Amino acid sequence: MAAPKDVLSQNEEVQPPIPGEDPLEQFPRQLLFEFTDSHRVSEAPIAELYLREATPNAFPSGLVSHYFKPQGFTVDRRVGLPQDDQSYENDGFRFRHTFSIASMTVTGWSAVMRNVLSLRRRSLPEVERAEDSPRAMHTEEHLFARFGGMIVRRGGLVAADHVSSAVGMVRSEMDPFLPDTHEATMADWEKALVTGYDLWSRVKVSIGTVSPDATRDAVRSAFVYADLDSQEVRFSAESGEHAKAADPL
Predict the structure, then answer these.
(1) pLDDT digit string (tens) for 77-121?
(2) Which of 80, 89, 100, 241 suits a disulfide with 112, CB 3.0-4.6 Å?
(3) Is 123 inside any structural domain?
(4) DSSP code of 117?
């Protein structure tokens, strides 16, 4: 006699996720971030990044143990570490995660954002070792910092050849960390770089300007909405809802 259906469901073996498709290792498709910038008198300004929304959210109760290591994020908490400019100048380097958010959104790849959101692909050891590694993360940050600095020195995105040369540089130096099957095109990388620079500029202008006459502490916020399905990034200095409704960069 066949066992009752409920008994079968209780005894049914739970199949592990297919490596590389584990929900605990996937970027959410829509994310809302808040950048805050703290200007304290006589101290270097500090930027922090908060995750306000994530859809879908594989971590409704916060971090979990995944391959015996912490994995994931908690909505409405800071993600990543506080950042400063690591310079004597207030040059906005502390907002460099804007480039990585753009890369994640447009190309689907960012070692930095995998680290910030704690989404390393532990089910695929070779992928984790190469693509999610500290070396990949440092290379990504270095390249985007070079790109941003180059554009700032040239007064903005004024010449297509400047962008094309930067795209070629970034893509070639990312090659050791990208699989042959990576689907992002050169046009995607160009869009990621231009969007990242646009986003960085808006965040810096809206909350990163420190008045030399400031006599009291201040904290300001800016909001970024990343939609990986449409490959679009939106920005608002007003609120998260304004960011979601804003025109794409």
Answers:
(1) 999 999 998 888 888 889 999 999 999 999 999 999 999 999 999
(2) 100
(3) yes
(4) T
Residues in the chain: 249
> Structural domain tally of the chain?
1
Show the beta-strand stretches assigned E in 68-119. 69-71, 77-83
Half-sphere exposure of 152 (CA within 13 A, CB side): 13
Residues of the chain with pLDDT under 50: 1-14, 158-159
214-222: Cβ within 8 A, 24+ apart: 214/39, 214/41, 215/41, 216/41, 217/38, 217/39, 217/40, 217/41, 218/38, 218/39, 219/36, 219/37, 219/38, 219/39, 220/36, 220/37, 220/39, 221/34, 221/35, 221/36, 221/37, 222/34, 222/35
The pLDDT of residue 104: 96
Beta-bridge mates of residue 35? 49, 222
- Report the SS3 class of residue 47: strand
Q: Is residue 218 part of a domain?
A: yes
Share of the chain above pLDDT 70, in %: 78
